[in-house]
Request: fold
Amino acid sequence: MAAAHSSIHFVAVSHSDAGATNRWVTSVGGAGLVQVIVDDERELYARWGLGISSFWHALSPWSMWSVYQLGKGEGIWNRPTESGNRWQTAGSFGVDGQGIVKWSEAAQRADDIPDFEVGLKMLEFKEGP
Reply:
């Protein structure tokens, strides 16, 4: 998505240490145009209201089914946590050029992937001049 919208600054925050983050970024094909920030103390997560998940959030039947489907369908299997905290919740935010949060979505389950197209629309992003 970042390559398709190069005028937008995309950021990914990792709760793992720098070494584990670098290995993970490499394993998924590199960062490309996404700025990767290491937050192994999870201070940024806390500032944005993202805390530790519940057992149900991480290990619900729906999450486990999604893990299985992703592994079977795309060959992407869960791997051991090298550092960080497997129980950290995820969230996505769209912030405009003035620093105003226009879109946010906290993960409801471990397998919850936000619709970034909605985030682009909320930012009223239009491609081109």
